[in-house]
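re: ur question from the group chat, yeah i did fold both. here u go
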Amino acid sequence: MKILLLDKFDNFLQWWADGLAQIVPTSWGSRHKQLKQHLLLHYNEKELLIEHFAQVADEATTRHLISTYDESDKKNVQEWLAKSPELSTLPTILRLQSDRILVKRLRYPAAARADLRNVISYDINRQTPFSREDVYFDFEEIATKDASAHIEVDLFLIPKKELEPLESTIKALELRLTAIDISGPTSVSGVNLLPIQSEKKCNQPPYRIWFGLFILWLSLITLIPVKLILDSNATIIHLEQQQKNGITTIQPLKELRDRYAKHVNKSKFLNHLRSKHIGALDLLGEITNLLSDNTWIRRFEFKNGTLRLQGESTNASEILGILDGSPRFSSPTFSSPVTRNNSNGSDRFKIAVSVTPNSDL
């Protein structure tokens, strides 16, 4: 349904742009036509068909058929591209037949939707006989009745090894693929098997430093008021004893009692603040109770209402659903792709999740 709506919206934009091209200056209209041009590649195991579409139309304006094993064919196409160097800058789409694509339907908790590509990228190793580094893949979400609880997706992939002869030919022609899509009886629009390059580098301070600083800060704000109260109380006791002996007057004692009352109020205020906010040790205990024994937490960071976890598990994809089901946590996502620990078969993961304050529970 989502892809169908997008197609209808694209058709509306195309109609609107064609109408607008009739009233804009000629130079703008020629630029609009340039944007419509593209190269379409059709590939089988032995031949590559290159079609040049000058405008959006049913028929290509130019076609060249290349044998992937015939160097003379490549030279003819290279000469054609050299005569029209602007063709090398056009969007280049590789269209594969659907019978060459492996399709598999997968099911995940709804909490995985925010980081679905990373979850599926890791799951390729388990759901298919291929490693994710050895395939081109994309997915399409399927509309279901219980979308609020679970999501279903169709996974499309093709091993990179099958396209190796084509890659050498494209490299020799100095073309750069813009997309890899699918055609055939079960054609799917909106799917692009080319990988998305979006690596995020994280440079987080060590967990032990943050945790140590937090404990030190917590100790200071707890011990300083207590020490002030104890010192004031000891002074009051001492002065009361002196008063009984007639050594001092009552005025200093009254001032110290007022100071003592102020320190007590400050201490109560700090205790009230601590009761409104959950502590890191309480969070660590709750995480321990939620996660199963096959999950290990190696780094634990709590800052500005966000808890960051790093560790290993036999099934990292289920952690998002567990955290999302707790009233203490919300919006759990993978902060980086899940990786495999080949030494013990577990999943390495990094998760960020928002923590709900005590006052909002």
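okk and heres the other one u asked abt
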Amino acid sequence: MLSPRDLALLAGKGLSLRVEAAAPASVLKITPIHATVPVLKLPVYAAPRPVADMHVAQAALDFGTVSAGATTMKLLPLAGATLDFSATPTTTRPLLAVFELHAVDPRQQDSVLQDNVPSIDVQYVGVTSDYLTVANKEDARIFFAVATYGPWSTPNEVRFNFRISTSVTSAPYMIVANSTDGFMTSLGARSDAFIAATSTGYYFSNSGDPLNVYRPADVQTAVFNNNVMVFSVPAKEIGLSAANPAFAFSLDSESRTGDWRNMGDYVGRMTYNMAKPGLSLMNGQAGAPLFTDSPATQLQVGLNLVPYATSGAQGILLLHLHNGSETRAEAVTVNYHWPTEIRLPIMRQTGP
């Protein structure tokens, strides 16, 4: 805060302000400079956005001993500072995306990662689906999530390729990647109409679901200056159906800030079954796994023991889209115990 004296000097042009980014990246540091010598004054343009500070209230979700044939439900509480989006200047609804966590990837060494770009250094990978809650199974969607160790300025700087196969023994034949309308098909200019594009070969489809699910004209999802990304794709577009609900996938990343293709990180084979997920995360709603990021939100998590234990899932991945960069991605451990049965032989003696 400026003192009354500094405010008076500022009004009388006897004071200048130095504005610089500080840690965390969402904070601006403002330093008063008393004008004892002439100061070159330049216009400053800033486009600040509101930042939440949300997190889960507990680092682990304990289901105790669960039945192998049923889904056990638990509440995952949220805590922290949300955004009041009821009136200007803060009309942005803070969003939380929830996924089954399938990969925790360590930070790459600078000598390994091309271009030394943390925005393509993968930290977490997640997946979920609305197959169990959507009325018409033909309308089911798969949702992928990626979180990196550093932010990109624009999604045009990075590319993430989910390579998908509906057979665990065949090579990947479908790719889901972040793109823009028209770019992948026509090799034209990039735009800010970001989508999750799909491909069965070299060329990608010319349209797709918006990146982070919602159109920017409808919902502000913080696609710029972020390190988390949500992909939405119709299940049928990647070869999935009620008869064929399972798939394997991998993820690789590329930097688009220099040459056409500078390879980054790679996360190997993961598996998911949209008809038998290990975790139920949709809170009973059809559509995207996005919720208002607020302590008032009640997240119900269902654990299906056998699919969870056999799929390679590693917990719950939460993406706080409107948090600061240091706290956007959060992993929650899932604890459980297998049911036990002790069967003892019964022996009896017959006869004399």
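fwiw on the second one: The mean pLDDT is 84. The chain has two domains: 1-48, 53-337. idk if thats what u expected
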